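It is worth pausing here to work through a concrete case rather than discussing structure prediction in the abstract. The textbook approach is simple: state the sequence, then state the predicted structure, then interpret. We follow exactly that order.
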Amino acid sequence: MKEVLSRSECSAMRGIAIMAIMLHNYCHFIGRIVKENEYLYLERNNERLWHVLSNPDELLPVHLLSYFGHYGVPVFLFLSGFGLVLKYEGKCSDDASAPRFLRYHYLKLLRMLIVGFTLFLMVDAVTPGRFAFHWDNVLAQLLMYINVLPDPDKTIWPGIYWFFGLMMELYIVYRLLLWRRSSWIVAGLVVVCWLLQAFCDVDGDTLNRLRYNFIGGMLPFGAGILFARYASQWGFWPSSRWLWFLIAVVSVGLTLLMSFSFQSWLWIPLVIIIGTMAWVKLMPACVQKVFVWLGAISAAMFVAHPIARKLFITVAWRQDIYDGLMLYLIVAIALSWAVKQVIDRIPSPKL
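Step two, the predicted structure:
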């Protein structure tokens, strides 16, 4: 797969994705900033986005990060599907049984979650705005079934940790339904999951619940599986940097345009993935190295950045938005590096 998407390019895509998620999760907590359409499709958010685009001011970058930054999640889901195929569907791959496979991937997720969650609980306990944790929700978070409980918006805290339950569901779906099975089954499941969302109320509880679970993440995850299986066979990959630049620019325009229609909004993750791939292909080597490094610590950054946000969001609430954002960024990256050192000292699970 080196000629299509190399290991370093995958890591750089993770770096872009985690920076988008990390900055989004700070910016959308600021009261007067435009909010995203992630789990629901809310016209009022689009109206506010159009207003700030039509009347730009010094906070425009913060508005854009708040509204679009969550699309780093589909990039991670795409790379997860891509990586699973390369690891488990090759001729020399391990034929792990379903229980062994699921146990291994659960422990891999728990190894990251337990460090970040423990540190967050301690910080949350000694800072203003302490969350009312309940034992059953904490247990559901650690066992990664919290996504299926009612009111996920109110029970998952920090909210970013919904991703662990989502990944566990996708691992189950992959191993039980998709592993080494026909790609038509993958495509069919993607279509079914799209249809389940397409006929929901755009701002209803059903759509919200679906998008907190694997149904909402199946499109980018399935795209990663299909890309890994067939991309090396396709002969039309751009060889010119100008073509990649055109793809990158078009992806930006399409993401904006597709945000203003519910049905096209459901398919934005594909555009985001293609666009991220294009921007990585265009990066100078020195810039790509930075994002490769960020990609290498992306797992630690994912679990650690809520801690930095809890500490520094008050700076933005006092209207020192860019001051708070800079402090948050520096501390989040440094803290992520430290958290990675802790995670690396926890024994890795064995398949």
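Step three, interpretation. The first helix runs from residue 7 to 27. The mean pLDDT is 94.
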